[in-house]
Design a protein that fits this description.
The longest helix has 8 residues. Helices cover 9% and strands 34% of the residues. 18% of the residues are buried. The chain is mainly beta and 93 residues long. The protein has a single domain, classed as OB fold (Dihydrolipoamide Acetyltransferase, E2P) (Beta Barrel), CATH 2.40.50.220. The two termini are 19 Å apart.
Length: 93
């Protein structure tokens, strides 16, 4: 799982039919502080009604995406799994 900040929504006029009715988010991997960028942003299918600015947990693995979305035959790769309320680091966290 990857900690990410949602940096925007993605809209397209032409897309693969598998994305019909699904919301795509642009997710920027971040460090545990929630703001330091860590790698390149990627697209993920929203499964939890996340929005721009939310701190989320994503999976970048096709099997996990298909299981969460319930589509065994769809070529999905990334999915937003949850919205993060708080990150605690260190002893006694």
């Amino acid at each position: 799982m990857i900690l990410c900040r949602v940096v925007g929504n993605v809209v397209s006029s032409v897309q693969h039919p598998v994305y019909d009715g699904k919301i795509l988010l642009l997710c920027q991997p971040v460090q545990a502080d929630g703001s330091t960028k860590l790698g390149r942003a990627f697209l993920a299918v929203d499964s939890v009604q996340a929005g721009e600015g939310d701190l989320v947990v994503c999976a970048r693995e096709g099997n996990a995406a298909r299981q969460v979305l319930g589509n065994d035959d769809d070529p999905l790769h990334s999915v937003v799994l949850g919205i993060v309320d708080e990150v605690r680091i260190g002893p006694g966290a």
